[in-house]
Design brief:
38% helix, alpha/beta, single chain, Rossmann fold, globular, six-stranded parallel β-sheet
Length: 228
C-alpha cells in the first residue's frame, strides 16, 4: 500500500498541477515508484475521436516521465471549464465516492507513493445534489496529509491563512506551503513567505519560479518524508 500526499491550493489557476508534476518528477527521478491521481478534472479538450483528454494528468505524465497510464490517473474527466460538481451536472456524469475509492485504491496498490491533486481550492465541491462530496471528504476518507500551493504574489497572505484556518478547523493536516510564480529577491514576495510562515506556523517548503523544472530546496528525501 502506498504513502500519499494531497496537493491543495488557495484557489484555482495558481499552479497546483504544475507543482504536482514537479513533485512526481522529483520522486520519479530519484528512483522511487510514484503515481498521480486526481478524482475529477474539468475543462478538458477532446481528441479527434471525440474522447476527452485528461489534460492535467497528461501534463503531469509528460513533465515527470512516469509510465502510469492516463486512464488510471483520473476517473472523472469533464469538458466544461467549471467546478466539477457543475460540469458533472451538465454532462450527466455525477461523481460517486465508491468509484473514487476503487480507482484510488487500485493506484495505491500498484505504487509506493501517490501524489493526489485536488480540484480548485479545498472547499471545492465535486458533487452537490442529493449527495454532497467535497475535496475535504476525500482528504478525510483517505487520511491524506496535504501541502498547500499558493501564488507568491500580492494577496497570498490572506488566501494562505484562510485556507490554513479552514483546514485546521476541519482537522485536515497541512505539512507545509509551496509558493509558485516566485521572484527571488522580490521584497514583497520574500515578506509574503515570512508572513505566511509566522501566521500559520507552517514552513514554506519551496519557492518555485516560472519555468522551473525542479523544486528548489525540496530534494526527494525531504519530499518523501511528507507522505503518509
Amino acid at each position: 500500500m502506498s504513502k500519499n500526499l494531497f496537493i491543495t491550493g488557495t484557489g484555482t489557476e495558481i499552479g497546483k498541477t504544475y507543482i504536482a508534476g514537479l513533485l512526481v518528477k522529483t520522486l520519479h527521478e530519484s528512483g522511487l515508484d510514484v503515481a498521480y491521481y486526481k478524482a475529477a478534472m474539468s475543462g478538458n479538450d477532446r481528441r479527434s475521436d471525440g474522447t476527452l483528454i485528461p489534460g492535467d494528468a497528461l501534463f503531469v505524465k509528460e513533465i515527470s516521465g512516469i509510465s502510469q497510464s492516463l486512464a488510471s490517473m483520473c476517473p472523472y474527466v469533464y469538458e466544461h471549464a467549471v467546478s466539477p460538481h457543475l460540469a458533472a451536472r451538465i454532462e450527466g456524469q455525477p461523481v460517486r465516492m465508491e468509484v473514487i475509492e476503487q480507482t484510488f485504491h487500485e493506484v495505491c496498490h500498484e505504487h509506493d507513493y501517490v501524489v493526489v491533486e485536488g480540484s480548485g481550492g479545498i472547499t471545492c465541491p465535486l458533487r452537490y445534489d442529493e449527495e454532497h462530496i467535497s475535496l475535504a471528504d476525500i482528504v478525510r476518507r483517505f487520511n491524506l496529509p496535504s501541502v498547500l500551493v499558493a501564488d507568491a504574489g500580492l494577496g497570498t497572505i490572506n488566501g494562505v491563512v484562510l485556507t490554513y484556518e479552514y483546514m485546521k478547523q476541519k482537522n485536515l493536516p497541512l505539512k507545509g506551503i509551496i509558493f509558485n510564480n516566485f521572484h527571488p529577491h522580490a521584497v514583497m514576495e520574500e515578506d509574503n513567505r515570512l508572513m505566511c510562515e509566522k501566521l500559520t506556523g507552517l514552513d514554506v517548503l519551496s519557492c518555485v519560479s516560472h519555468g522551473d523544472k525542479n523544486l528548489p530546496s525540496l530534494p526527494a528525501e525531504k519530499l518523501a518524508a511528507l507522505f503518509c
